[in-house]
## 1
Amino acid sequence: MADDVQSSALSVNSAPNGGPEVDRGPAGTARFDFSRGYLRLWRRTIRNVILGTLVSVLPAFIFYLVAFSYTPEQVRLMLWLSPLPVLAAFAADLMMNWWYLGPVRRFSRNARASESAGIAYARLHNLPLYSFARVFGPHALTASTVAQIAVLFANRHWSLGISSSDYWIYWLLNLTLVPIGHAIFEYHANGWAAQGLLASLVEEYPSSADIRGVWRVGLAIRLAIFYTMLAISPLVLLAAAVRLRPLRAEPFSGVWSDVAMVVAGVSGLNLLLLLLFAKDINQQTRTLVQCFKQVEAGNLGTRVDLFSPDEFGVVSDGVNTMIRGLRERQRIHDLFGVYLSPEVSRAILEGRIALEGEAREVSVLFCDIRDFTRFSASRSPRQVVERLNRFFSRMAGAITAQGGTINKFLGDGFLAVFGAPGHQSDHARRAIRAALQMESELQALNVELQESGETPLEIGIGIDSGEVIAGNVGSKDRLEYTVIGDPVNRSSRIEQLNKTLGTRILISERTHAQDGIQAGRAMPPVTVKGIEEALRIFTVGEKA
């Protein structure tokens, strides 16, 4: 039974333990071998019928021996007769299971379609409840009928000597109490056996789980039915034993020792079935807990495979829906991270972006690659894009390391913001540190370029600080988070001054004045186009 129990364990983008084997199709794609999986399920259902029959027949036979006080000759004849009802019930079970699993068998052998996958899913999902109903229906009726015919035949031809007044107790026990152990056993055992094939089916045909026809029985109803059956069976058997062995007919001690034997045996069987039930509940609970722990650890590729007809199945479906939603949210977040900065995408998803715009004190860093137009003219488009991506990857790392946000890429340059969308009181200091780190990254990149025989890159960086308007700007169909204000224009103008001054990193007086920054060397005031007053700027870095 261990392999069946394991089959209900969590599956993480792989075939569940105990599930059908996997064939490798063209290009290495995985394809579940449903035919082999069905054969494995069929063998398990046969085994479960045999074990379930033993669970019910052996205790029943012991009860008959004790309660009816058969003579040795009657016991010998009954042992000869007992295989008949057992084999008849077994044959009925096999035929009923063969019919019931027909859609699964045909699905595993023929060309598979989503419609037939849904029917196969419903049959597999309902297998525990079907098994329970089959045992109490065709199985019990067949066994009782054949047993009665055998007794009548033995009474007439072999002098069995079973009184007709006892027939009613045979029918009562065979149709009610005897199948209890068998039905509860097959409910759990067949439920475990179908887990692997169900998980594989949903893996390849996710929509199959949405088909109608799946039976649901609440856990409270299931508990009530099972516990009631297990609780009343010792009492009914006790009453039957006393009825068949009146206290006045035999010595007191002998009667009650036999009755105690019956009650002890039935109670022991019920205890085993309760343990089976408890193990099932424990397994499903631990599977859900394991899933929650994996999701908590950030593993969104997991899936919980609990195809139970009670609330555990509903919870399992809900957990899988939740995981799919989290996975979709993560995918959107990752896509945002590709087209937007991680800070902006996180702020959008968390609702921290003011749609109407807001005033923010920020530092703006403008970066541009020198003479990149000349480089582009002599290179293929693929080489140009490769060089830009290589450069931007290093520069973006320096910006992100200081908590900045690349607001937009501008061909051969980019605009970065410190202090938005998240508030940063030391935005100016972060911008300067990012610029110095960008200079260090540029040197490392140029070493790699020169080693491969390529021309090195040169850049210019300008930084200004002040108040901007930050928010979503664009049309109703497409918005862009951006900043608008003098610091954006001034940082661009300051960056251009690097060409004439022979520097690499220039910062404005407003940036230099933030938080008492003392770094850098003051440059003579300079007038630039578009700004009336002369700019006082400072240079930092190796080319200061």
## 2
Amino acid sequence: MSTKTSPPLADTGLLDLLPDPMIGMDAERRVVEWNRAAEQAYGFSRTEAIGQNPIELLRMSFPLPLAQLRETMAETGVWRGDVVARAKDGSTYVVDSVLVAERDEQGRVNRVLAVHRDVTARLASQSELARSETAAERERIHARMRRAQRLESIGQLAGGVAHDFNNLLAIIINYTALIVSELDAMQRAPHRECWDALRDDLGEIQKAADRAASLTHQLLAFSRQGVGNPVLVDLNDAVTSVEELLRRTIGEHIELHISLAESLRMIRGDDSQLEQMLLNLSINSRDAMPDGGTLTIDTADVEVDEEYAAPRSELRPGPYVRLRVSDTGRGMTPEELDSAFDPFFTTKPVGEGTGLGLAAVYGIVNQAGGRAAFHSEPGVGTTFTALFPAAEVDAELGAAAGEARGAGAVATILLVEDEQPLREITHRVLATAGYRVVGAGNGQEALAAAHAEPGGIDLLLTDVAMPGMLGPQLAAELRDEHPSMRVLYMTGFAGSVLDLAFATTACELIEKPFTAPELLERIAQLSTPG
């Protein structure tokens, strides 16, 4: 009697990069995937776990009857809750378990992926707090925990949706631009009005796509999963570059005062995101001062000592750069202050605010490794403070200089993208610009194509997250055969897996959706010797 084996849920090497135990199950709820983190957490090897029922293997206890859990999975495809699991040595863990189902063509659940995160220590800490605090204090702590959970869950949703959404937007934007370019080249006088109307319609499509792309970037900034283009940034330069825009935006009834520290330390971040953060904060301050007031922006170098950092887990002692944005507006109540960074929270009238502005600010600061906080009093005003860790300038400039010295003219580009329509339009953009383009749909195809290329590869243009092999893994494989090859990564979403992949590697990135001019400009920058 033969048993049909389901294909793996994901590449084993990819799952082994993840810090949390990942367990894949087939339709009979038997283990087909068991990553390295699961081996380390529970003591069972992959060989021991494959084919077993994980509920029996780990003697798991659920907070609800299994029949009810399976009913929820059948209806929604997702379940999340705290589960008790026991390791091979008898140790007991409480894990935050997330179950996600895959359905077949008939809608039946045929595979399930489980992600476990150990929360034993967190629950023990919560229990200790509950015993030591009053009822009012416990309620305050629980409210903060619920807020953190909302931020995390919506951030995960935003990051996941944005990955595929950005691929589609890149296709729409570039095909639209290509059609408009072709229409401009067609001079058919008898039908000029028709062509003008068609061009106008296409222009509306492109504007809609641009607006959708802007929204996606805000969602990614909030979720802290947008890669952006992290480089060495002088925060003073970021403020100066948007000063005129801010003056036009806030209006003449508001005075703008800017006080910038001399010889400010450098930070590492995305300059365009930092400028967007300043704009978002200034718009919020403007709306809080309808009758006029003062908006003040100042920067300074500060040192965070152990005493200040101790109660703030996101901070470590050391040098930081401080940004403050203060206004003399109406201020916020304690309830509004507590929800200021929540997504979709706004004090503006319906239709006048998305509630994503400050949530995006929160994501931008955290993505740069910093800490964001508000202080506000009704009738007095509001002060936003961000602390950014100072960058190690010498090491970063040395790495950048090394990359520049190795750069030369780009002639042949290896384009690797698993989304075929996006690969095709990108191929056309590059070929039209005069580059020789070698295309591949995944890492293995790219390795074979590069090996067969007699003239070598000057530039690898690759998606970051692809089935079978991540972009950084592909680049590492190709480096031996093509040591002078430059690499430009394309991405619309980069979560914790990619943080691990890029942990020790300086890299060049371009965010999806990108336009043809943006892509060609980035390639030209890589082609220019330093």
